[in-house]
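Input record, target 12 of the design panel.
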């Protein structure tokens, strides 16, 4: 790449702590002002899509966990409903409710990491410690359910690997009661902090039209003011049975679609997830969570695409079946990968220090970017 004499190329990452994984950002600078940002991926090579061709359909599930490893339940959820659509399976209602509960607990856990690390990137360590403290409670719930704290292999095609622990409902209700005040506490620590607002308000503004043109989804799209959520707008599982709001950016402290709006949408979404979990626990039906799991998964020849609302946006699976026990092809529409494509637009004409705030507001997981 040819550069002008007054320009400088600076590499940020992959060792930089705010790149949160093996991502290298090539910054073209004029003084301290950014002219261009080129994200370089390709260091992780999960090779998920190629692995799937050598695995049977059930064997793929542990690999889905390892893409967005902070939202493993959501990855399994999306893959399972895609294969179930190929097979035409009807699930027991209890399975659907438990999947929603796990998906929303995972959303809160993922947003806590996003918010906590975002605070740490900008210089606030206390919210980081508080966020990880609260996330541990959710991981405890996952552990008593399936024995794992991060990579679960819990949501299977046609059902679940285990039913709920006898104490799960009680402990989850206790968590809801415990966590609601913690959202208020996080607001007081970070959302209204003057230094945090100075670093994030009017920084990395993403206009709605630009977000739509780039295929941006999830909290980033909603941060730009658009009420689009697959749980409501292209509903799946039993989400249509629950009452919840879709928070959007309103430009409370700056411009609609800035870094602060994207952060604040995640804060509000945690409260909405608590509402969904509470309703699901109240309505939780009885049933056998393994009764619909096929003994042998061999879908008919055909193709299918299904998508779910993951913490980072629209996670979609496109599967081609050739009638055998293994997928012929699998393609993943990964929200982290798509959302990362907007970095150049968001960073242009900002200062180097703003790259940290902008990248943190995108909330990427590299296992999903370089899948």
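The sequence produced for target 12 reads:
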């Amino acid at each position: 790449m040819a550069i002008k004499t007054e320009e400088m190329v600076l590499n940020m990452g992959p060792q930089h702590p705010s790149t949160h994984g093996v991502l290298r950002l090539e910054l073209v600078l004029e003084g301290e002002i950014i002219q261009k940002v080129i994200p370089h991926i390709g260091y992780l090579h999960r090779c998920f899509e190629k692995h799937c061709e050598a695995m049977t359909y059930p064997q793929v599930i542990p690999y889905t966990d390892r893409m967005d490893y902070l939202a493993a339940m959501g990855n399994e959820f999306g893959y399972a409903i895609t294969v179930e659509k190929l097979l035409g399976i009807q699930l027991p209602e209890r399975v659907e409710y438990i999947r929603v509960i796990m998906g929303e607990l995972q959303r809160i856990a993922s947003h806590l990491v996003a918010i906590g690390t975002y605070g740490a990137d900008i210089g606030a360590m206390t919210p980081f410690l508080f966020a990880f403290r609260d996330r541990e409670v959710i991981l405890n719930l996952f552990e008593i359910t399936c024995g794992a704290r991060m990579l679960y292999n819990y949501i299977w095609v046609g059902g679940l690997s285990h039913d709920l622990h006898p104490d799960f409902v009680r402990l989850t209700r206790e968590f809801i009661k415990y966590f609601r005040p913690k959202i208020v506490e996080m607001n007081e620590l970070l959302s209204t902090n003057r230094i945090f607002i100075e670093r994030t308000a009017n920084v990395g503004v993403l206009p709605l039209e630009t977000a739509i043109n780039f295929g941006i989804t999830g909290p980033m799209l909603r941060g730009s003011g658009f009420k689009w959520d697959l749980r409501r707008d292209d509903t799946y599982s039993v989400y249509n049975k629950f009452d919840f709001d879709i928070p959007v950016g309103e430009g409370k402290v700056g411009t609609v679609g800035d870094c602060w709006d994207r952060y604040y949408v995640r804060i509000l979404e945690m409260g909405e997830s608590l509402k969904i979990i509470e309703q699901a626990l109240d309505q939780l039906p009885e049933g056998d969570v393994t009764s619909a799991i096929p003994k042998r998964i061999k879908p008919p020849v055909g193709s299918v695409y299904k998508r779910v609302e993951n913490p980072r946006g629209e996670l979609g699976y496109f599967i081609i079946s050739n009638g055998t026990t293994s997928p012929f092809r699998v393609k993943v529409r990964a929200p982290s990968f798509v959302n990362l494509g907007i970095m150049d637009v968001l960073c242009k004409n900002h200062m180097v220090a703003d790259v940290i705030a902008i990248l943190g507001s995108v909330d990427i997981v590299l296992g999903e970017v370089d899948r």
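Residues 7-369 form a domain with the Cytochrome-c3 Hydrogenase; chain B fold (CATH 1.10.645.10).
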